[in-house]
Write a structure and sequence with these properties.
This protein is α+β, with helices and mostly antiparallel strands and 316 residues long. It has helices at residues 5-16, 155-184, 198-212, 220-239, 248-256, 262-280, 287-315, and strands at residues 24-27, 29-30, 34-36, 40-50, 54-57, 68-82, 85-96, 100-103, 107-112, 118-124, 127-131. Helix 4 (220-239) crosses helix 6 (262-280) and helix 5 (248-256) runs antiparallel to helix 6 (262-280). The termini are far apart.
Amino acid sequence: MKKGLLFIAILIISTAAVSAQVDTTRVSRLSRDSILIGDQVDLIVDLQLQEGDGFVIAAPSDPLAYGVETIKGMTFDTLSIKKGKLEIEGRMTLTSFDSGSYALPPLLAVIANAQGKTDSLIYRGPELYVNTVPIDTATYVIKDIKGQIGYPVTFKEVLPWLLLALLIAALAYFIIRLIKARRENTTLFGKPVQKDPAHIVALRDLEKIRKQKLWQNNKQKQFYTAVTDTLRYYISERFGIMTMERPSTEMLEDLKKQDVEPKTFDKIAALFGRADLVKFAKYEASAEENEETIPDAVQFVNTTYVSQLEEEGGDE
């Protein structure tokens, strides 16, 4: 419908001053006279207009009637246009959840033609009958409420849980094997871990320390700490002496009791003494002393390792 501002103004004025004399009284209709509880039904309004007329139907209340609910508001559709005459159909969808008879209220439609004349149409409301589901009381038997229906569990439903259980089991097995391997010093598959001999480890670490050039870069404390830690590890593995977390003097007393050449022992004792001064007394060792530290440590490792080989050869 064409609705201009002029029509809207005319419509407001005409609606406010509607004559008590109604031109036409009509009846809206239902798509079905009766429904079951919860079903839906359409309330239909038919309009016949001249081409160029405008119209409006006053918005019905919601709910339309007590016990009747609106599912879909009023919508309009043009059914036909013949010789300048239009047939318009308006529909709104209703429902009810209570049985009974409901008198639907009238609807007001206002039509304005091109000359500004307005007509008011009142559509009487029809009766809506809402029925319950019929029950055959002759054969009806009250039964207990059925329990929950049990369906068989399918493999597709079990599969995710099965995979999760396998994953947890595999993870637990891996953790147990890892802990056991660390305790027994083996690989995850039970093979013994091949450790390098103590003298090889010591000589390799001393070479790394030499290449780092710590004391040349004014890092004497780090230099002597690295050297003495390497020697402590070697002495512990070679002689079975507790060396870590012990004062150098106590460790050297135990080392002196071993089969170590006096000259070799004196050099290593001097090295540890100098290291203690550097680490704890802020002593600055000379370049000559620093130069002699790595060679003295290497000589100590080689000399004591050779003596170990001689001892092992003599035992055989």
